[in-house]
Design goal:
- With 185 residues, the protein is α/β, with parallel strands linked by helices.
- 66% of the residues lie in helices and 8% in strands.
- Strand 2 and strand 3 form a beta hairpin.
- Helix 1 packs across helix 3, helix 1 packs parallel to helix 9 and helix 1 crosses helix 11.
Length: 185
């Protein structure tokens, strides 16, 4: 998993699952055609946000409605980026964001696969508040950690889960460092 997939899954795990399945190539704008995703060379935070948005725009109406809160979470993410020291660097790209996204194919979330993955981590979610089952948390994959964070719900609960996982899961901690390094550019 690279930093872009990590970022998209941290915003919307189901959209990150879609990114897993697409072949990537470099281009001038973000294009989703159902088989490939083209990703330009833009600041990382911009790519994360715009890829998340492009994946969302590629969904059918039912999946889009189901993931409405996820795209709102992505909007919160980019608002926080704009309010940070990175804001001035990314603002020009976001002002022309609509012109940077093209969707030519429809995607559907594999909800059966999502439920299968969720079933593995949901029992661990109950261990987080008391920091129990530390060995199980320690051995969880980065992907499993991101899914657990997603399943936690709102931003404050996600932050708590991420903090516990960061303390007890070396792989997740390493991935978070790589993500923040990419975010700072």
């Amino acid at each position: 998993m690279d930093e872009l997939e990590f970022c998209v899954k941290s915003l919307s795990y189901p959209l990150g699952m879609l990114l897993e399945t697409l072949k990537r190539r470099e281009g001038q704008r973000i294009e989703v055609d159902g088989i490939r995703i083209t990703v330009p060379r833009l600041p990382f935070a911009v790519n994360c946000y715009l890829v998340t948005r492009a994946l969302y725009l590629s969904l059918d109406v039912v999946d889009a409605k189901r993931l409405g809160d996820d795209i709102a979470y992505a909007e919160e993410f980019i608002a926080r980026v704009l309010a940070s020291p990175l804001g001035e660097k990314v603002r020009p790209y976001l002002e022309r964001a609509e012109g940077l996204i093209s969707v030519r194919g429809r995607l559907n979330v594999d909800w059966l696969e999502f439920e299968r993955r969720s079933a593995r981590v949901k029992p661990l979610l109950g261990m987080v508040p008391n920091e129990e089952g530390l060995e199980e948390l320690k051995n969880l994959s980065v992907d499993g950690c991101l899914l657990m964070s997603y399943l936690a719900g709102d931003r404050k609960k996600r932050e708590k889960v991420n903090a516990v996982l960061g303390r007890h899961n070396p792989s997740f901690r390493k991935a978070v460092r790589a993500y923040f390094k990419a975010l700072r550019g």
